[in-house]
User: Which sequence fits this backbone?
């Protein structure tokens, strides 16, 4: 497998249409995704002293973190509106190799910052709500 460029790891938000179009949340400098799982332990006296886990059980979640330059795009305005309203919306993560993951996410955190004579930056964290699947 060849190395892939981080700049091609994009966060996109759905326009909410019946046949959705996903728009890039512009100005991202860094994007990170974490897939989390919580195991269900089924260890018993018959386990021989070894921990056993139940496959397919427990909870799974995806966390997306991103940081970038505020450009005032429509997608950024939509993300901010979702954060203020606590709205869960459809997002897409796309990768350089053409792979895509789609799911519903809540904007868990949205921070803005800026320095005198500098650009306005933001960081955000999204938490999945429901299944996140390869598209």
Assistant:
């Amino acid at each position: 497998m060849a190395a892939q460029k981080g700049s091609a790891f994009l966060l996109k938000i759905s326009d909410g249409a019946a046949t959705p179009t996903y728009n890039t949340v512009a100005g991202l400098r860094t994007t990170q995704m974490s897939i989390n799982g919580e195991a269900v332990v089924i260890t018993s006296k018959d386990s021989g002293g070894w921990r056993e886990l139940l496959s397919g059980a427990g909870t799974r979640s995806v966390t997306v973190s991103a940081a970038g330059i505020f450009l005032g795009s429509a997608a950024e305005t939509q993300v901010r509106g979702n954060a203020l309203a606590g709205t869960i919306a459809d997002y897409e993560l796309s990768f350089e190799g053409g792979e895509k993951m789609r799911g519903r996410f809540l904007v868990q955190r949205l921070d803005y910052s800026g320095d005198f004579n500098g650009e306005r930056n933001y960081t955000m964290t999204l938490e999945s709500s429901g299944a996140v699947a390869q598209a």
